[in-house]
Design goal:
With about 150 residues, the chain is an alpha/beta fold. The chain has 4 helices and 6 strands, in the order E-H-E-E-H-E-H-E-E-H. The chain has one domain: 3-Layer(aba) Sandwich (Rossmann fold). Helices cover about 35% and strands about 20% of the residues. The protein starts with a strand and ends with a helix. Bound molecules: flavin mononucleotide.
Length: about 150
């Protein structure tokens, strides 16, 4: 059975909601899925996963969430060849036009260095996910599952 892991960070709940939509969609597709907060993840988290997903907001003026800093450093050193990855970002491109979705884009670059295969381009959600975003997130999950098949 295909195993997916979603690691997320959320300060005000928007990214947590996104991570729940992702989890529900993996479940609907009969993929075994585990969802963890960033501070629960470590360098072994993705070891037994076929599909690796990061969902993160951006903060500061182009910063990753503090909770993700350790995991980000560890990720860049991992060998995830043979696995599929995807990144979802929540951000605000109107309020932070110069740094929009910085954290998600930095994770996408970090994953590239691990040798994993990108199953979908970075999905950018403006703040919380609306109905249209939910459809995009479902397509994202399907693309990751298809890429692993
Ligand atoms: C202090 C602060 C700084 C932010 N900085 C950025 C930023 O640099 N880039 C961006 O795209 N969004 C930025 N945002 C927007 C948040 O990433 C966005 O509201 C997101 O939905 C928050 O996710 P959460 O509810 O999961 O915590 C910032 C928000 C706050 C409050």
């Amino acid at each position: 059975m295909t195993v997916a892991k979603i690691v997320y960070a959320s300060s005000t709940g928007n990214t947590e909601g996104i991570s729940e939509i992702l989890e529900d969609t993996f479940n609907e597709m009969d993929v075994e899925v585990e969802r963890l907060e960033a501070d629960e993840a470590d360098d072994e988290t993705f070891e037994d996963a076929d599909i690796c997903v990061i969902a993160t907001y951006s903060t500061g003026d182009g910063e990753r969430p503090f909770d993700f800093e350790d995991f980000y450093e560890e990720l860049t050193d991992l060998d995830l060849a043979g696995k599929v990855f995807g990144v979802v970002g929540s951000g605000d491109s109107k309020l932070y036009p110069d740094h929009s979705f910085f954290a998600a884009l930095s994770f996408d670059e970090a994953f590239e260095k691990t040798g994993a295969t990108r199953g979908h381009e970075v999905v950018k959600i403006e703040n919380d996910a609306d109905d249209a975003d939910e459809e995009i997130l479902k397509e994202f999950v399907k693309a990751l599952v298809d890429a692993k098949a």
